[in-house]
Amino acid sequence: MIRTEQENSMLADLLFEDVVESREDIFKKYPRRKLEKEQLVLRFAPSPTGYLHIGNVYTALAGYILTKNSNGVFILRIEDTDKEREIEEGIVQIVDGLKYFGIEFDEGVLGKGKTEGIYGPYIQSERVEIYRVFAKDLVSKGLAYPCFATEQELEEIRKQQEKKRERTGYYGKWAKWRDASLDSIEKELEKETPYVIRLYSRGDFKKKIECTDLIKGRVTLSQNDMDSILLKSDGYPTYHFAHPIDDTLMDISYVLRGDEWLSSQPLHMEIFEALEFKQLDYGHISPLMKKEGEGKRKLSKRRDPESRVAFYIENGYPVEGVKEYLLNVANSSFSDWRRLNPDSDILEFNLRLEKFNKAGALFDILKINNICKEYISTLSAQQVYNYALEWSEKYSEQTFSKLSNHREYCINILNIEREGERIRKDIVKWSDVLTQLEIFFDDLFINMKKDVVEMEDNLQRAILNMFLDTYYFEDSSSEWFNKIKEIALRNNFSTDSTEYIKDPSKYRGRIGDVAMVIRVATTGRRQTPDLYQVMQVMGEVRVRERLQGYINDVLM
Ligand code: GLU
């Protein structure tokens, strides 16, 4: 450093003329929290730069449960300092997406224009003055400096580094403005040359630092020696500079974030040190991965629709099911816990960071489907109806119109095989409900693609006519079945599978084939829930119309 202490202090005044507050003034505004030791203060800090990723929900869910477990404070902070990548309504998307999953915050951004807490502002772009106070402090101490290098110059440096096979970046001897004289800096300022503020790194890349990550355990990384940018030329801070300041002022317990940041942890530690802040612990969550061939890869924003939170919302995945799955991915012990505590709220689960997958957890949409199916099978018809109604109001006009105009009928439909021994498990998400309704509504039924039966028409006609002759709506399920048995016997279909297997040639087929004709004629499908119950819900008139319609229109 060739600038004297006095020169650095002059430089700080020159660059930050408008900054009158000191770091002490700022600290006074952000008192330490008065909490019990076990009460955690965590934050989820997304950037509104794109759609909400299921990995965001995964990370946020972890913070939510950990803070709730400890009766602590969960904060939503918006990191919107990358103005070029910011998308419109990005904040609303984040808040709404997380709310959909029942992840609610105690402090920070709670909605559009709505915040809570005394540690704000909670949107980084509104905290620029705070960052400038700390940047000024660093410049005055010779720990940060203005850099006027243009894009072209930086590109040139990179080329030379590549040619010489040296590490690329702005550091050490390559950092042209690191030790510039006050005079030369003043000249550029007079010319109004755009500049950034960089860290004056004191690290040595050849030296190692060891730290204990809350998830990954011991990690060894090289010290930072990059003079990284702290304030960009547009005046906004980089993530590297903003998060140590925010996490310190907001009195966060530790940082839970995606492991794409692990490699910059040495830089962050150096910034904490330069700012004379107490170092914070980090827990780096590994990304959600997808199986591909023999290997696995990160769940991709572009290639995998299931990476988008909107995918779950639009298709009406039950949030409880998705959350259960994510907790399974986080701690594999969750499934055992769930088995033992089938009715407990997930907030009672003791989530452990050290049990998180360290390398990259596999994310499997088929498993989500299974969990959701299981979950929905535990609901009552009324609950399924309510959830589906709420979802469809926004996402499926057709479903909504049926559900809202035919409430009783729909609840009866959804109640088929929902009680008793065999519980139906054919609904994964609310958008599947329409397929369940289809066969029960004539207007939907007409347009449905129907399954066919492999049996000559005359025989089908005979079976259906016999069924129509004896069909009696008040019959119990066993009376109804006995009538089908009777039809089978009269037409030489076997009603005893052991007998049938002995000599199939003696029969035209089995009783199941007879039931299949009646099933397809009534519903257009080869697979349905219990046909007796289906008919009871449809009502006698509709059943007769369907069967007659099939005889008249489908059979030749
Ligand atoms: N804004 C950063 C991101 O979205 C946050 C990382 C963190 O939680 O510290 O990746």
Please tell me about this protein's structure.
The protein folds into 4 domains: 5-26 and 127-285, Rossmann fold (3-Layer(aba) Sandwich), CATH 3.40.50; 296-377, Orthogonal Bundle (Glutamyl-tRNA Synthetase, domain 2); 381-438, no CATH class; 457-553, Arc Repressor Mutant, subunit A (Orthogonal Bundle), CATH 1.10.10.350. The mean pLDDT is 95. The chain has 24 helices and 16 strands. The chain is of the alpha/beta class and 556 residues long. It binds glutamic acid. Glutamic acid binds at residues 45-47, 79, 239, 243, 255, 257-258, 261.
Assembly context of the chains? single chain
Q: In the residues, how many domains can be counted?
A: 4
> Ends: how far apart?
97 Å
CATH-assigned homologous superfamily of the largest domain: HUPs
Structural class: alpha/beta
CATH topological fold name of the largest domain? Rossmann fold
Q: Which small-molecule species are bound to the chains here?
A: glutamic acid
Widest sheet, order of strands: 1-2-3-4
Query: What proportion of the residues is helical, as a percent range?
Result: 40-55%
Q: What is the CATH class designation of the largest domain? A: Alpha Beta
Family: Belongs to the class-I aminoacyl-tRNA synthetase family. Glutamate--tRNA ligase type 1 subfamily.
Main location: cytoplasm
Protein name: Glutamate--tRNA ligase
Subunit structure: Monomer.
